[in-house]
Design brief:
Layout: H1 42-55, H2 57-70, E1 78-82, H3 88-96, E2 101-106, H4 109-121, E3 128-132, E4 145-151, H5 160-170, E5 171-187, H6 200-218, H7 229-235, E6 239-250, H8 256-273, H9 279-288, E7 305-315
Parallel strand pairs: 1-2, 1-4, 2-3, 4-5
Antiparallel strand pairs: 5-7, 6-7
Helix pairs in contact: 1-8, 2-3, 8-9
Amino acid sequence: MSQHTATHHGHAHGHQHTPGDPHTSGHRHSHGSHHDGAPLDWNEIAPLLERQAETESPAYADAAAWLGTLTPAQGIRRVLDIGSGPGVVTGVLAEAFPAAEAVAVDGSPELLARARERAREHGLDTRVSTLHTELPEGIAELGRADVIWAGNSLHHIGDQRAALVEFAGLLNPGGLMVLVEGGLPARHLPWHIGFGRPGLEARLDAANADRFAEMRAETPGHKDEPDDWRSLLADAGLTPAGTRTFLTDVPAPVSPVVRELALTHFGRVRDGYGDRLDADDRATLDRLLDPAEELSLHHRTDLFYLAARTVHTARKG
């Protein structure tokens, strides 16, 4: 995807580039650098993306099960996972559609290698394959499919409308186009954390929304398009088949894995948003990340993880 990555859910997205959601999207796109131009180390980032996607896997499994109510699961023979990252969701889709080949599509060879390794570990290597390509240039070479899943990846393509038209052209009759876009910003902390100004995460959301707008504007071939996904899907010649939102709710106290995700997330926010935040909020982030601070993320008992991902679907007639 125009090798230009959002560091975050991801997809390294040290921040999920859903407007307002600075999280590490576990299901990520392939882009090769931070927004400040520094290269991404995919070998370093892959475990982070993987852990986050695994944390949200139950929600993705629920979403995939819902897709099975929209189209006969046994009739699905080929699924494309666009912006697959390390292949966690590719595996979820393979399990949801047991007669299908699931193809992890990404621009990062390192993440695709991990996707193949994951497939072997989960006994899915005969049905999960990978395809290294840059999008949107490589859409035509993806081949036909019965389900195309684009998880927080379409917004990394400049002309989203044109890309959806191309994706629709790959769908077999009766096939489903699935977009994971939007939802709600992830939450980790209560409104009042015991120091600093209350409402820290809401202000981080605002900073991320500004970053997201800049990312979109700088994407090659960018077209200013409202996020009316139902209309965009219909304009691509598809019939909207329903929209649902799926929740990941990990209450306090969290596991060490979820705590580590929060530490990585807030560390990336501090490093990436520095000049967008006031001195008080920067100081609050420093305290949250300081292992010696009693109320830091390392020790807090009120840390949680709450995320909502919205899934839009449309069927090819």
